[in-house]
Design goal:
This protein has 142 residues and is of the alpha+beta class. It folds into two domains: 51 residues, no CATH class; 79 residues, no CATH class. It contains four helices and seven strands; from the N terminus they run ββαββαβαβαβ. The strands form two sheets. Strands 1, 2, 3 and 4 form a four-stranded antiparallel sheet that branches. The longest helix has 22 residues. The structure holds zinc ion. Zinc ion (ZN) binds next to loops.
């Protein structure tokens, strides 16, 4: 959906909603455009103020909007983990086992582990999850 700022011959400014730039041209050439204030059909588009309305277009959300949403979500997860979990780094599998078997105080931890290590932990019944979006370390865990 495109919104154009339109102006009639009497300098009345108003908004026109169009499916596309072509739709605007078609409506104008068919005389379907008229000023809501004076009904003049001598309407032109103001070149500087046209814009695309993302919110009203529910047929297909633009890809970059989806990307914005998911990167924000990932940042929130990372912030939460950063502030609520002890970073034990590469000791993660060892620490996870100690906590699980009661050898150290129970707490939330995060750190790094390989896919195999995570699988081994899960097989022992120790919950470990990879967190999405870590830029370098793809096996970051909580
Ligand atoms: Zn007018």
């Amino acid at each position: 959906m495109i919104i154009y700022d339109l102006i009639c011959e009497h300098s009345h400014r108003f908004e026109g909603w169009f499916k596309s730039a072509t739709d605007f041209t078609a409506q104008k050439s068919e005389g379907m455009l008229s000023c809501p204030m004076c009904s003049s059909r001598n309407v032109t588009k103001l070149p500087t103020a046209s814009r695309i309305n993302l919110k009203r277009d529910d047929s297909k959300a633009p890809d970059h909007v989806m990307a914005d949403v998911s990167s924000t979500l990932i940042e929130k997860i990372q912030d939460y983990v950063d502030s609520h979990y002890d970073d034990v780094g590469k000791d993660f599998p060892e620490e996870a086992r100690k906590i699980y078997y009661g050898e150290t105080s129970a707490r939330n931890i995060r750190g790094t582990a390989s896919v195999d290590e995570v699988q081994a932990l899960n097989e022992e019944g120790i919950p470990a999850l990879p967190i999405p979006g870590a830029p370098i370390d793809k096996t970051k865990l909580n």
